[in-house]
Amino acid sequence: MELSAVLRDLAVVLAIATVVAFIFSKLRLSVVAAFLVAGAILGPTGAGLVSETGVVNSLAEIGVVLLLFTVGLEISLSDLGRMRREVLWAGGSQVSATVLFCLLVLVLWGLPVPEGLFIGFVVSLSSTAIVLKVLADRMEIDTSHGRVAIGILIFQDLAVIAMMLLLPSLRQWETAKPAAVLLTLAKAGAGVGALLVLARFLIPRLLKEVIRLNNREILALTVMMVVMGTAFLAHRWGLSLGLGAFLAGLVISESDYVHEIAAQVMPFRDIFTGVFFISVGMLLDLPFLARNLLLILPMTAAVVLLKTVATGAATRALEHPWRLVAIVSVSLMQIGEFSFLLMSEGYRIGLIGTVRYQFLLAIAILTMVATPFLMNAGPEIAGRWERWVTGRLSIPDIGEERGPQRTGLENHVIIAGFGMNGRNLARVLRATRVPYVVVDLNDAQVRRERAAGEPMFYGDVNRPEILDRMGIGRARILVLAISDPMATRRAVAVARRSNPNLFILVRTRYVADVDDLVALGANAVIPEEFETSVEIFSRVLAEYHVPDHVIAQQEQVIRSGTYRVLRERGPVRSEEVLEGFEEFLRRKVIEIFYVAPSSGWEGKRVEEIPVGNDTGIVLLAILRGDRAIIRPDGGEFLEAGDKLVLFGGHAPLASVLSALSRPAGRA
C-alpha cells in the first residue's frame, strides 16, 4: 500500500467523523453514535470512501488496547478485591444466564449446540468502550450503578479469553476432549498469572527510574512501550491484546505515578478509540440491513430484552435496589466490541456462515448505536420500572415495613447516602446528640446498619412519600451525600417543594454543578473539586508562615467568590475575588520567631538578623522572660528563649523566617 493512499484514507475518515460528530453534538446526541454512523457512511457498502480498510482496523485495535489500559488504571487490585461480588457473582451470573438462555432458544429453533453456544458467547458480551465513555461523560463512573456495571464488564472482558480459547473446541465438537479443553484454559490462566507477576515486579521499577529523569518525552515513550509490549506478550501467549494492556494498567494503578501516566495516554486513547468505533460502523452491510430490516429489528429487540433480563436478575440477586438494577440492565443491553473479535474468529473457522455473521453484525451495531440514548434515558426508565414493580408486586418500601412510623423527630437532620461522608456526619451528630435519620438505597447495608443501631431506612430520596416518612416537614437540614448527579438534582427539587424552609446541603464532585443545584433550591453546595483547591491554597500560605486566622479569612474570601450565588442569587465577577486576594497580599502582618537553643542565633547581635530597610521587615521588639525590649539597637545580644516580634509583608516575612530557621552563618 502507498503512503499517500493511507494518508488520504485517514484524512477522509477524520474529516467525515469530525463533521458527523459536530452535527451530533449540536443535536445533543452521543459522539459514540456519531462515530458508528460515520463508519457506516465511509464503509464499502456506504460511500466506499476508504480503500485501505486494513489500516483503519489496525488503528482500531490500538484503540481497544489503550482503552482497556486506561480501564486498568482506574481499577486498582485492591478495588478489584472489593468489587469481587460485582465481578465474580454479578458478572458470572450475567454471562452464564445469557449463554444458557441463548443456547436453549437456538437449539429449540433447530441450530446445533456448538453454533448455539457460539452465538450465546457473542450476545453475552457488552461494550466496555461505549458504557465507560457514557458513564464518564455523565460523571457516573464512581456511582453505585457505575461500579456494578464496571464489575460486570470486567468479568465479561476476562471471559473473552476463555471463549476465544474454546472456539476451536466448538468447531471440533464431536472429537473435542474435556481434558484438552481444561488444559487450554489452564495455560491461559498461567499466562495471566505470568503477565501479572512480570508487570508487578518489572514495570513499577522501570517507571520509577524514568520518572527520576523528569523528561516528559521519555516518560510518554516508556508508557506506550509498556502498553504495547504487554499487549504483544499477551497475544503471543494466546490471550487477547486488550487483556495484556488491562493487566498492565491494573498493576500501574497501584503506582504513585498513575495520574501522570494516565495524562500521557488519554490523548492517544481518545483518538484511537474514535477510530475503533468508526471501524465497527464500516463493517455494516447497508444493503443487507435494508433487505432484512423487518427481521433484524425484532431480533435486536429480543437480544436487548434477553440481556436486560439476565443482567437485571444477576444484579438483583446481590440485593441491589430496583432503581440500580434497572439502570445497570439498560446500560449493558448492547453487544460489545469483543463480540466482533469472536464473530471474526468464528466466521474464519466456519462456526457460522456469511448470512448469520451479517445478522449478528447488524444486531450488534444497532444495539451499540442505541446504547447512548437508552443510557441517557436510564434514570427515567428506572423510575418508571420501580414505580411499576413496587406498585404491582407489593415490594415493601420504606413506607410499609422498614420506614419510621412518621417519627416525632423535629429539628433533625436527614442524611441521604451512607458512604464515607454520610457515615462521618452521622458519627459526629451521634456524638453531639443531634437527632438524625439516614436514608439509603443499599438494601443490604440498611439491614446491617439497622441491626447495629443506626437510625437508617431504605428508600429513594427522590420520592416525596419517602421524604414525608423521614419527617421532611419538621426537619431542619437535608444533607445529600449521594454519588448520582441526576438523582441529586431531583432530590433537591423534591425536597424544596416539600419544605420551603429546609436547609439543603449538597455534596457534589464538580464546581460546574453548583449553579444548577442552587437554581433547584440548594442552600449550600460543597464541590469536592473546589475544596481540594482551597486545601492546596491553604497549605501554600501555611508554608509562607501566614497566620492561621489570616488563612481562614482568605479561605472565606475565596469561597465567597464561588458561593456568593448561594446567598445573593446573582452572578459573581471573578475580578472581585482577585481584587480581594490582591488586597490580602498587600497587607502587613506580625509574626513571632522563637530563638531556640539549637537555632544558632543565641549570642548573636541584633544587627546580624536579616531585617531592616533593605528587607522591608521591622523588628518591633524582643520578648525576654516577663519583659519586652522595644526597638532594640543593633548591639543587643540574643538569648535562648527570646521571641522576636517581626512586622512586614507576607512574602518578605516568609523569606526572613526561612533564613532564621537555618543556623546562623549558614547560607
Number of domains: 3
Instruction: Tell me the major beta sheet.
Output: 6 strands, parallel
CATH topology of the largest domain: Na+/H+ antiporter like fold
CATH architecture of the largest domain: Up-down Bundle
Provide an overview of this structure.
The protein is α/β, with parallel strands linked by helices. It has 3 domains: 3-385, Na+/H+ antiporter like fold; 398-508, NAD(P)-binding Rossmann-like Domain (Rossmann fold, 3-Layer(aba) Sandwich); 588-667, Alpha-Beta Plaits. It is built from 28 helices and 10 strands. Strands 3-2-1-4-5-6 form a 6-stranded parallel β-sheet, sandwiched between helices. It has a 4-stranded antiparallel β-sheet with strand order 7-10-8-9, covered by helices on one side. Helix 14 runs antiparallel to helix 15. The chain is globular, with a radius of gyration of 31 Å. The protein starts with a helix and ends in a 6-residue tail after the last helix.
